[in-house]
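Standup notes
- DV: blocked on the single-chain target, sequence here:
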Amino acid sequence: MYSQTAVVIPCFKVKKKIKEVIDDSIKYAKFIIVVDDNCPQKTGHYVKKIYKNKKNLQIIFNKKNLGVGGATIAGLKWALNNTKTKYLFKIDGDGQMEQKFIPKMRKCLLLKHDYVKGNRFQNYEFLKKMPFFRIFGNILYSLLSKFSSGYYNIGDVHNGFIGIKSQICKKLIKNNISKRFFFEPDILFHLYKYSARIKEFSMPAVYKDEESNINYFSAITLFPIYYIKNFFKRILLVNIFKELSFISILFLPSLLFFFHSLTFLYFNHKYFKSLGKETPNGVIMLGFMELLISLQIIILFFIFDYLKSKRISS
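- DV (later): unblocked, structure below
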């Protein structure tokens, strides 16, 4: 399986670590694709200089910075078009990922899964080594991703250590996947369209002196919007238009009725209070009936969504 494996390494400001990462990758994969994402440190040229005669090491130079997602997709496309690999892995160039897990992940791809990824939260000892801000942010966004992607079994959505079968990768890269730091959660959204089987592996992240390139302002302000957008796109495109799911068809109007019932009860309470009267029981009962019925349908939808996720991933 070694000869059927390729590793893609997107590079941006990782010159200090890249040799160590490549030397480790060579142990587990025949093909190494380094993608210089218009790196200001000229990482690609550095790699080209120190690995002059290294076969099966391809260096791609992006003319402009595409982000981690864009660089990864460029590497995956090259591997699919120029090699006969069956298993594609993406690791970061900053040395945070222990590649000794590749054989275990590759075996899982061989057996039945389409996509595997790392999870830093399954082992408490690993978790203690992570900065608190990263723990909090990753847990929050992993929770949002469960609803957004439909994969409720995924616990560390922003972990960039991923492996994928070439068959599903060929389908995946035809989609308009987010090119920057929303890349990993957006992949899950697109994988759901193909009912891809996904599995996570417990693994540590190695934090040393590397600098994060994440734009935290964008992550805080834009990521929640992206998650909500993908959630409704998934319901419309997959659950309703593709599968004609009855409970999903009911879900969207139920959301409207839920919020309408709350506003109905609130404004009627304000109105009758302004008249110096108690809100009539009939008005309260009408509002609560709409609230409870819509809430029951919303809960049923999420139960259905969760069970479907279990069925796909089993």
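- Follow-up: Strands lie at 5-11, 31-36, 57-61, 87-90, 115-119, 162-165, 198-202.
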